[in-house]
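New to this. Explain the following:
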Amino acid sequence: QVQLVESGGGLVQAGGSLRLSCAASGRAFSRYAMGWFRQAPAKEREFVAAIGWSATRYADSMKGRFTVSRDNAKNTVYLQMNSLKPEDTAVYYCAATLAVSIPTSRERFDYWGQGTQVTVSS
């Protein structure tokens, strides 16, 4: 129903910044809540942030450092990441859901992108 493509990952030093983008194809983008998850090698996939029409949710470890936003005219959601730490190294995925509330569990997101690698060196 909807295809998601992440971009913007790369290699940065600790303390640096990156902005990830997730471009969505299909109609009615504004009706989806959009989420960001990440998965490090040999680690479980974890919730990062999500945005509905205007409300946002963040994992505690990302709050104050990461900012999620969206541009409905461009069918794109962003994740601005500041003060990056080596522990942030992971593949970052965007996801979409039509859930009434903004979920944080991966099971409640219906569509997923292919992921983009973020590597933070110390």
Q: What stands out?
A: The chain has no helices and eleven strands.
